[in-house]
Structures
1.
Amino acid sequence: MTSTESAHLSPDASGSRTTDATSTVEPDVLVVGAGLAGIGMAVALLREGRHNFVVLEKADRIGGTWRENTYPGCACDVASVMYSYSFAPNPNWTQMYAEQPEILDYIDAVAREYSLDAFIEFGSEVVSYEFDEQTDRWRVETRAGKVYRPRIVVAAHGALHNPLKPSFDGEADFGGAIFHSAQWNHEVSLEGKRVAVVGTGSSAAQFIPRIAEQAGHVDVFQRTAHWVLPKADRKLGATERWLFARVPLLHSVYRNIAYWTHEVPVLAFMNPRLVRLLRFAARRHLAKQVPDRELRTRLTPDYEIGCKRILLSNDYYPALCRDNVELVARGVADLTSTGVVTDDGAEYAADVVILGTGFSTDNRCADEHIVGRDGTSIQQAWRDGMEAYLGLAVTEFPNLFMIMGPNSGGGAQSILFVIETQIGYITRCLDLMDAQGATRMEVRGETQREFNAWLHRRLARSVWNSGGCNSWFLDESGHNRQSWPGTGTGYWRRLRKPDPAAFVFSAGSVTGR
Ligand code: NAP
C-alpha cells in the first residue's frame, strides 16, 4: 500500500477552515465498509494488480450484516453454494442454507486468504465525503479526524444497516428490555419470560421459532401477513462436502441449479400473471403446516405473492402453532410500563419487546455528508428519491461508485451475485479511466435520467409495484428504489462492459494509479 502523508487544512462543520494536525493518506481507491461487498471489492483490486487502496471499517471486525445480525436462527435465505464468491467456492458449508456464524467464518477465511488485514483500517467511521474539483480527488474524513484523499471512492456500506425502530410515545416508561433484531441483546435471558415480537418479516420469521423454545409465552404482532414458501434446507453430509472439495464440477452444478432456482421467480415477479404457481405452493405450505382454519385465515396475505419479500421457512408456521405462542394480527401502536398496546387499543403484558421491524431503506444517505461536483449534496441530488445509473454511479458525484446502490437488488437472486457483477463493472471503469488518462469519470445526467425512466416504466408492471402491498422496496412517494426490473442475468448482461458514452471523462493536472 502506498500513501502520501501531509499536514492539511480542513473545513469544520461550520465551513470555516481549521488546522488539522492529522496526516492525509492518498490511496488510489478508498473502499468504505468491510462486509461482503467491501471484501469482494478489495479482492478484485488485488486480483487486478491494484495494491494502492485502503478499506475503512467503522467496527472492529469485518463481516457487515453478518457481524451485526446475531439473532438466534439468523441464516441466509439464499442457498450457500450461491451465497459465496465465485472466486472462492466453499466446499465446507454444512447446510444448504448456512447460518450466520458459518457465513461470518467464510468471510473471515476469504479475508485471511488474501491477507486483507493489511489493507483494512478498523474503527474508522467515515463522517464526510467531499469532491475536490481542483485535484479530482475525494476528501474523506473519519470520526477520528483522519483524512484520506483517494482518486476513487467505492461506497460498500450496504443497503440494510440502519435499524428501523418505530417511535413509541411510551417507550421510556416500559419497564422491561427492548431491542432490535439487528442489535440483539444476548445479556437478556428469555427463559420463562413473556416476550412481545413486533413484526413478522424475514428476520422475525427466523428468530421466532428459536425464542419460542425458551420463552414462557410469545405474542407475535403481525401488521401484515407474509407469504411463506418451504425452504429446501438440509444438512450437507461429510461425503457431499468431500465430493465438493475434490470434484469442483459438482460444486459448479449445485451452484448453477441454485442460480437458476433464484432466477425463475423473478420472471414471475416481472409478469405478475405468472405468480399463480408460487401462490399455489405457498397456500399448500400454509394448509399443510397450520391445521387451525382461523389461524390460517389470519396468516393469509391479502396482496399478491412476491410483492413483499417471500419468507422461506419450514419452522415459522409450526412455531406459531405452539401453545406458548399467540399470533396477534394487529400492529403495535405504543408501549406502556408493562407491555405493548396494539392499534385497536388492546394491551398485552410483556417482559421483553423484540423489534423485528426491519431497516431504513428510503434514503440510505439521508444522514451522510456527501458533497459532489459544484457543491451538490447527496440530499439535494436525491430530493425526489434515490436514483443512480445501473445502481452504482450518480451524476454530479464523479469518481464515486456504490455497491448495492439504488435499484440494484430486491429480486430473488443472491445479492452476492449482484455485488460481484457491480465489482466487475467498477474495475472495468477503473481500466477505462486509465486507458483514457482520465482523472475524472462521471455518469452523464441525461444518461441517468433516461435509464431511470426506462427502469421505472418496467417496474410499474412488476409485482413489487402492483401487488397491492407496502414494502421497504417502495419509498414514501410509492416509487420503487430498491429493485432491479429483471433477472440477475439481465443485470449481468447490462454490466458486462461499461459504455464509455454513458460517462464524461476528463483529465485534470493530477493523475495517479
Ligand atoms: P422487514 O421485512 O422490513 O419486516 C419488518 C416487519 O416489521 C414487517 O412485518 C412490518 O410490518 C413490521 N412492523 C413494523 N412496524 C410495526 C409495528 N408498529 N407493528 C407491527 N409490525 C410492525 O424487516 P426484516 O425482517 O428485518 O427483513 C428486512 C430484509 O432483510 C429482508 O427483506 C431481507 O432482504 C433481509 N433479510 C435477509 C435475510 C436472509 O436470510 N438473507 C434474513 C433477514 C433479513 P408491515 O409488513 O406491515 O410493514
Note: DSSP finds 14 helices and 24 strands in the chain.
2.
Amino acid sequence: MYVILLGLPGAGKGTQAARLSAATALAHITTGELFRDNIREGTALGEKAKPFVEGGLLVPDEITIGMLLDRVKQPDASAGFMLDGFPRNLEQARALDEALSREGKQIDEALYIKVSTEELVRRLAGRWSCPQCGAVYHEQSRPPMKPGVCDNCGAALYQREDDRPEVVRTRLEVNQKNLQPLLDYYDGRGKLREVDGERDPETISKDLGRLIGIGC
Ligand code: AP5
Ligand code: MG
Ligand code: ZN
C-alpha cells in the first residue's frame, strides 16, 4: 500500500505516521527528517538543503525529488510506504506518480489532516523533537516522562531551528500556497480523504487507520 499524509506544518503528520507505521509494515518516510539528518551529518546534500530548511522555504525540486525517489527504492519500502512531507507541490506529485507507474504501482490514498492556523502555531511553539529516533513531543499535550529526554531512546530533545516564530510564519505561508493545488490533484483522482486533526492523536489514528483498512 502506498499512502501520502498531507497537512500544514504542525498538523501531526509525523505523529500520525509514527503511529500508523508501527501498526503496519509501511515504511515511514519523511523528507524533512532526511534533510535534517543530512544537515547534521554535513553531507553535500545537507549543505545544499540547509538554508532552505532553516529558513522555512521549500528545498528545490531538483534536490528533493531525486532524494525521495532514491529513498522509496530501499528494501524497507518494498512492502509499501507512508510519505510524510512529500509531495509539497504539483511537480513533486507528478514525479512520484510517474516513477510509481513505471513500476506498475500507484498511490492508494492521500490522507489530509486538517488543522486551523492558530492551533498549528501553538503546536509548533511547544514542540520538542528527538534527533535520534525522530519522536515528537509537546510541552503541554505530549510531555516526555522526564523533561528534555526522549522516552523511546533516551536522547536529549531539541527544538527545531525552523520552529522559531519568524520561520513558522514563512513555513505556513509557503505551505498554505501549495496545499490547495495538491488537494485538488488527489481529489481529482479520487484518492483524497480528509480528517479533522484537532482531536486527540488516538482518535485521529483510528480514523486514519479505518480509511486505509487497518486497525490501530
Ligand atoms: P518537515 O519536517 O516535514 O516539516 P513540516 O511539514 O513543516 O511539518 P512538521 O514536521 O513541522 O509538522 P508535523 O505535521 O509532522 O507535526 P508533528 O507530528 O511534529 O519539513 C521541514 C522542512 O524540510 C520544510 O520546511 C522544507 O524546508 C523541507 N522539506 C521537507 N519536505 C520537503 C519537500 N517535499 N519539498 C521541499 N522541501 C521540503 O506535530 C507537531 C506538534 O503538535 C508536536 O509537538 C506534537 O506533539 C503535537 N501534536 C500532534 N498531533 C497533535 C494532536 N492531535 N493534538 C495536540 N497536539 C498534537
Ligand atoms: Mg514532521
Ligand atoms: Zn528518541
Note: DSSP finds eight helices and seven strands in the chain.
3.
Amino acid sequence: MCGIVGYIGDREAQDILIKGLSRLEYRGYDSSGVAVVNGHLEVRKKEGKIARLSDDLSNKTLEGKLGIGHTRWATHGAPNDTNAHPHVSTDGSFALVHNGIIENYTALRDMLSSRGYSFQSQTDTEVLVRLIEDVIKETGLSLGKAVRQALSQVQGTYGIALVTEKDPDMLIAARKGSPLILGVGDGEYFLGSDAAPIVEYTRKVVYLNDGELVIVRRKGFKVFSVDDVKLDKTIHELEWDLEQIEKGGYEHFMLKEIMEQPTALENAMRGRLYEEDPFVQLGGLMDSIHRLRNADRIILCACGTSWHAALVGEYLIEAWARIPVEVEYASEFRYRNPILREGDAVLVISQSGETADTLAAVREAQRQSIPVYGICNTVGSTIARETDAGVYLHAGPEIGVASTKAFTAQVTILAQLALKLAKEHQMADDELRQIVTELKAIPGKIAEVLENASCVEQIAKTFRYASNFLYLGRGANFPVALEGALKLKEISYIHAEGYPAAEMKHGPIALIDRFMPVVFIAMQDSTYEKVVSNIEEVVARDGVVIVVTDAEEGQLDELCEHVIRIPKTHEMLSPLLTVIPLQLLSYYIAVLRGCDVDQPRNLAKSVTVE
Ligand code: G6P
C-alpha cells in the first residue's frame, strides 16, 4: 500500500526512481511523484498511473544523483496532483514521501495551524512535513534529529524517506509499521518498500525494523533506534532475481502467475516431501512441531485470499491431524480481545508478510504469550521476522494484485503441515504415502488444467456481460467457492458471492434466474451426490450452470450448459485443482471487459494500513 523508492549514488536518480516506482506500482497506483536534488530540490507529481509521470519527466528531465519517489494508494485526500507525494517544506528545502497513516494528524494540524503553518493538501503526510519544520524552527536541530523528534509525536504508522537540498549527500528513511528495505551497492544505496525496485542493482539488503531511522550517505549508512542509539545491522542476501519480477512475455502478471503454478508448487514442496518416513520435513518448524502437535487448538489468522487458504487449512488439519482449528480474520482477531489459552497456537498466513492487520494479530498473540508461527512468501518480511518460527512458500514474487499462485502454494504448505501433524498423530504410513504421492502429482495435474485454458476462455466470452455470479462448493471446496467469487469481484468488478452449496436453499436460491450464472464445484467425493442435487435445483429454476468436475462424461453434461473437466485427485487436495479454472475464468472475463487486470481499481497488493 503506497510504494517508496530512494536513490543516492553516482548515477542519475530519475530513471532509477521511475523504474523502481513502476516495479512497486502494484502497491498503489492513483498518483505518483519524485523529488530530485541537484543544487536545489525539484519535485514533479502527477495524478494517475506512473506512465503519466514518466511522460512528463521525459519532456523535461530532472537531473541529480539523489532522489526519492512515491506511488500512492490514497488514504487521506483524493488522488490528485496536490495530494500526491512528495510533500515539500514551506521553504522548499526538503521533501518527504510517506506510506502509512498518521492517526493524530487532525490534532497536529490544528496545533500547527495555530502556530501559523498553512497546508496545500488534505494529506496527513503534509502535517508531518510541517511538524518537522516546526521542530527545526524551535530547536535548531539537524534534519535527521528533527525527523526523529517529530516522529516521537506521531501516532500511527509510517515508512518515510526524505531528501534536502541543504545536504546533497544524505538520504533519510524511517519506519514504524510500513516496510522499508535499504539496498547496499558499491558507493550507492537504493531504498524500497520491498525488494522489487532494488534487485536489479544489488542483492545485498538491510531490513529496517519498526522504530529505526537510517541516514544514508554515499560513503555508508548509519541506523539509529528511536532513542538515538546507533545499531549494528546485518546485511542479508536477496533470493529474488530480476526475471521473476518481469512479465516474461505474458500480457499480465496475473496470467504469468497462474501459469507458474506448477513450478511454484514444486518449489513449495522441494526438499520437504518424501514418500518414505519422515514423509514431511518443514525445516522452519522443526523445533515447533511438537508444540503444534500438542496444541489444544490451532488458530489460523489471515486476510483476503490468504484467509481462504486458511479455511482450506482448517479442513486439512482437522481431517488429517484431528486438531481443532479456528480460522479468524486478522482484522477482527486483533480488536476482539481474543481469548487465548496456554495450549493454543496461532499460525498466520500472509503472501506479502506485511499486511497490517495480520501483523497486529501476531503482536496480539505474542502479547498474550502464545506462540505464533507464520506462512509467508516474502523472505525477510516483517511477519516472517516477527513470528517465532515459520515456513516460506518459495512461490517467487507475486505481483498481480489478485493473488493466485500464493493461494495454491499456501494450501500446499498447509497440506504438508497437516500431514506432518498427522504423522505425529499416528496416521498409518500407507495412507501418508498415498497422500504424499497424490500431492507430488498435483503440479502435473495443474499443468493439465492449464492446457485446457481455452475452454475456460470460451465460457468467459459467454458470460462477460453478466452482472452477478454465484459460486457454490462443499467441504474443502467451499473456500474455493469463496476464492472464485473474490477473484471475479476483484478484477472484473462483477458482483459475485461464494456459498457452501447446501446453504443455497437458505437464501441465494432466491436470486437464481436465467441471467445469473452459477458456478458449481462438483468433485466426485463424499458429497458429490448432494452437490448434483443442488445443481438440479438451480436448473429447475432456469439457472445457468458452469460446473468444475472430475466426473466422467454423462449426467453433468446433460444438466449443465458448461462443463470444465479437471483430473481426479485426493478429495482433500482437490482445492489445488478446482481453483485453477476459477482463476482463469475471472482473468479472461476481466480482460474481455477491458479491466486493468494487474491493477484493479481501489485495490492494492500489500495492505499496510488498517
Ligand atoms: C490484499 C491483496 C490480496 C491479499 C490480501 C492479504 O487485499 O489484494 O490479494 O490476499 O491483501 O495479503 P497477504 O499479503 O497478507 O496475503
Note: The mean pLDDT is 94.
4.
Amino acid sequence: MEAKDKVFIFDTTLRDGEQSPGATLNIQEKLEVAKQLAKLGVDIIEAGFPFSSPGDFEAVRLIGKEVEGPIICGLARAKKEDIEKAASALESAKKRRIHTFIATSDIHMEHKLKMSRDKVLKMAVEMVSYAKSFTDDIEFSPEDAGRSDPKFLFEILQAVIEAGATTVNIPDTVGYTVPSEFGNLIKLIKENVPNINQAIISVHCHNDLGLAVANSLSSIVNGARQIECTINGIGERAGNCSLEEIVMILKTRPTLGLYTGIDTTQIYRTSRLVSTLTNMLVQPNKAIVGANAFAHESGIHQDGFLKFKKTYEIMNPEDIGLLTSKLPLGPRSGRHALNERLTELGYHLTEEQLDKAFTRFKEIADKKKQVVDRDLESVVRDEQRMQETTTHYELENLQIACGTGLPTASVCLRRTSDNAFLKDAALGTGPVDAIYTAINKIVQVPNELIEFSVQSVTEGIDALAEITIRIREKNGAVYSGHAANTDITMACAKAYLNALNKLISEVGIQIKLYPQHGGLEAKRGV
Ligand code: KIV
Ligand code: ZN
C-alpha cells in the first residue's frame, strides 16, 4: 500500500484516557505505559496536559526524555501560558508536537468561553503562530467540532493552516454525531478548506452513543489520516475510540485499502498493562481484548471451529499477541520454570521481584494445582502494584465469621512507620462491609466506597479472585485499589488497603496515635 494510505495512530491514553474518573496514574506508571505504546508502534503519544498540574508536566517531560520512536505531544489550551508550559515540558523530546485547542461550537463559545467567533478565530491563529515559534509540528483542535457550524469550521481551519498548523484535528467532543454525518463533515472539510492539503486531517471521537470507532472509521474512509484513540477505549465519560478496535478493523479488512504502523502482537499486552495500572477492568465481551473475544461457547460454534477455524474466527488470537495456552505450571514447577514463563509473557523481574513472585506462585499452586498464564500475570502485576504504592498499612491477619448470624471481621494491620500491630473488629451487613468497617476503625481516614467489583481470573472454583475498588476521599479525589487472591475476603481487604495507602500518600494524611485502642487518628494535613 502507498504512503497516502497510512493512517497515523495518535494515542491519547495518557491524556484523555487518564481523564477517566479514578484512572489516575503516577509518573512512573505513565512512563511504563508510554514505553509499551512505543513498542506497540503508535505514531504519536499525547503524554499529558503540562499546564494542568505539576504531575502532568513532569510526566510529559520524562516521557519526552526517555521514550524513543513516537512523536511526543503535549496538550495546551489556546493560551500563551499553556503553550509555554507544553513547550518547556517537551524540550528534551527528539520529536515533539504541541496540540492546542479552542472551542468552536456556538454553545461552547457563548456559554463557556463567552467569546465571539471573531475573537476565537483570532486567538486560534495567534496561538498556533506562537506555538510554531517552539516547534514545527503543531496540531490544532476546534473543540466540539461535531456541533460547530461547518462554515465557521472551514474558516478557522484555513486560517490555522495558514498560521502553521500541520495537523487539524476534528473532535466529536460530546460523542453526538453518527457515522454518515461525521464522514460527510470530513468530506466537506476536504472540499471547502482550500489549503487542506498542507495538513493532515485527524479525528478525535468520543463514545457517548457507542459510535466512536464507527465515526473514526467513517472519517478515514472520507479522507482523514490520523485517528486519536486510547487503549481499551478509556477516556472522558464513555471514553474514546478504542485503539485496538480501529487497528484490527484495518488489518482484518484489507479491502478498505488503509493500514497502520501498529505491531498488533503487542495489543493484548498493552491492554492488560493499561487495565491493571488504571484499575479499569475490561468488560469480558469487549471486542478484541475482552476475555470472551476468542471464546467459542455454543456446541455448533465449537464443532465448526474445530473442523475449520475460519468458520467462526475472523482474526487469530496470536495476531493480538494472545499466547495460545502452553502447559500450565503446577506445585512442582521451580523458580527457573516460573522465570522462563514470565519472560515469555514479557515480564523481566529483578531477583527480588522474582523471589516474591515465586512465593506467591507457590501459595497459589498449592491451592490451585494448575497455574495458567493469566494467574501469573495477575500475581506479578499485584506484586508490582504493591511495590509502586507506599505501604502505610499492611494486612497481617484477617478472621471472618459469616453465615446466618451477624457477619463479623477481626483485622490486624501492621503500621509500617513504627511497626505497630493494630487490631480491631466490627460487625457488618455482610463480610465485606465488616472487613471495611474494621479497617476503618483502625485507619480512620474518611472516605466513601464508590465502586466494588469482583472478577475471576480463570474458570473453576479454585480461581484467583481479582477485586477492584474505588474510594472517594472527602475532597472528591478518587483512588483505586486492586488485589488478587484465591481467598476472596483476603483480596477484598488487600484491595481496600491498596486504595487507602494511595489516598494517604497523596493527601498527606498525618498519622497520630489513637488513644482508645492504640490505633490511629488521621488528620488531613500539612
Ligand atoms: O474531546 C475533545 O474535544 C478533546 C480535545 C482537547 C481534543 O479532548
Ligand atoms: Zn477528548
Note: Residues 513-526 have pLDDT under 50 and may be disordered.
